[in-house]
Design a protein that fits this description.
The protein is an alpha+beta fold. It has 15 helices and 24 strands. It has helices at 17-29, 57-62, 66-69, 113-126, 188-196, 272-279, 283-289, 336-355, 365-371, 374-381, 385-407, 448-453, 474-483, 487-490, 519-523, and strands spanning 5-13, 35-39, 53-54, 75-76, 79-85, 91-93, 109-110, 130-133, 137-142, 148-153, 156-158, 164-169, 173-181, 208-217, 227-233, 243-249, 254-262, 293-303, 314-315, 318-320, 467-469, 496-501, 504-509, 529-531. Strands 1, 2, 8, 9, 10, 13, 19 and 20 form an 8-stranded mixed β-sheet that branches. A hairpin with a 5-residue loop joins strand 9 (137-142) and strand 10. Helix 1 (17-29) packs parallel to helix 8 (336-355). The longest helix is centred in the last third of the chain and has 23 residues, at 385-407. The protein is globular. The relative contact order is 0.16.
Length: 545
Amino acid sequence: MERESMEYDVVIVGAGPAGLAAAIKLRQINEDIAVCVVEKGSEVGAHILSGAVFEPTALNELFPDWKERGAPLETAVNGDDIYVLRGPESALKVPGMLVPSTMHNEGNYIISLGNLCRWLAEQAEALGVEIFPGFAAAEVLYNEDGSVKGIATGDMGVGMNGEEKDSYMPGMELHAKYTLFAEGCRGHLGKQLIAKFSLDADRDPQHYGIGIKEIWKVDSDKHQQGLVVHTAGWPLDESDSAGGGFLYHLEDGQVVVGLITDLSYSNPHVSPFDEFQRYKHHPVIKQYLEGGQRVAYGARAIVKGGLQSQPKMAFPGGLLIGDDAGTLNFAKIKGNHTAMKSGMLAAESVAEALAAERGSDELSDYSERYKNSWAWKELHMQRNFGPAQHKWGNILGSAYAFIDINLFKGKLPWTLSDSKADHAQLKPAADCKKIDYPKPDGVLSFDKLSSVFISNTNHEEDQPCHLTLKDNDIPLNHNLPIYDEPAQRYCPAGVYEVIEEGDSKRFQINAQNCVHCKTCDIKDPTQNIVWIAPEGGGGPNYPNM
């Protein structure tokens, strides 16, 4: 059965903040531009997960009247607390005057990014953008000259054995003059494009963290709407790992709590999920959660390498935007505003090219347009934050950031490099301290399977596994003896298991559990695991993340 095709001026992959901002801006510039957005989640927002303290800079530009339009920004930040957790019971509150300026949140809002994306999708559709949720972009299509022609959505109804089922439906080809890739962190098509066009030549390797988040409904006497809490130190410092925690008070008695574990950690016994469960027992965090009820769970990798790791964004026929291109500002722990701005700038470049009756060429003006924007200047100011954290740890790295950012405004005459990829940081398990994580108490801490359950994750079981191995022997023959197979621990959803059967072992992949965080694709020490898109609509269904 041949694929059908549809023609557009612009195809956008991913209905996150970057992709939707690009779609909206295109139609604001010229309502005759035909724009299509494909989204692998069952609905817009289903796969969106972010802290999120939202800086409205880009939204102010896109919709100056966003308040009148009813954008879901309901909770303004009214308090900023930062703690260094010195152990499981002790903490030091950091005076505001010693905090890097990027961590101050005056004028920002605590939001559900998923709900903001749902609202942005409504605005886009009102402008005439076509949005297709439940369709995963599975393949990049190329013209004969090697330029990007568009994408093909994945086939539906293919069995685990690779054969077509009665429900088989071939994917659709979506052709465009320009294709924008806004898949988020570690986008699987973006990864292919970076390799094909050598977009990361002369760049530092990209760096990542894994963010694990829960939403809690808490008692009214413990709820302080608008309060933002950030922490560094325990529990990650016990394994010499980097990262930090957050707790934000939303409206309606909701609190979001999470922990970001830097994926540069070296001890293969580290389990980011279990570190997060420990974190919630610290008195600074526990005081807000006790007596409350956990209502949602999710996990997502974040891209944090900054300008030094940012690939070239333009290639013949398209652009990488948002987290596909690494636009997150790690010093702020915010990337939604910069992602949106990258999409809006992309729309301007594309609209100009279309007006000149161009197509499928390289948008060479985008780089200069981006470099002249406040988004690039913001990332340039904080460019040394991430490398400093890796070189000197959270505390000394933050002290450096205070000097660099607060005092010198990012104008110190050097740029730090961070040239070792996260997956290459692991040490042999025998050389590292084994970590004995406490069992969850079912009150503040929980196990992986009950957590995945409330993420509403589901996949059609009879389909090819979307977690592919380049070499099936590596997990047991290499990773297990050297690293005690770390996939058992770095995955926050219990996808990977080493099963003992008598005297033998086998490596089991529970793809049904996958929350699409992409950590396995990033942290596997031999880069043996390759994440590809499952059938559209599969994965988590986050209601409010």
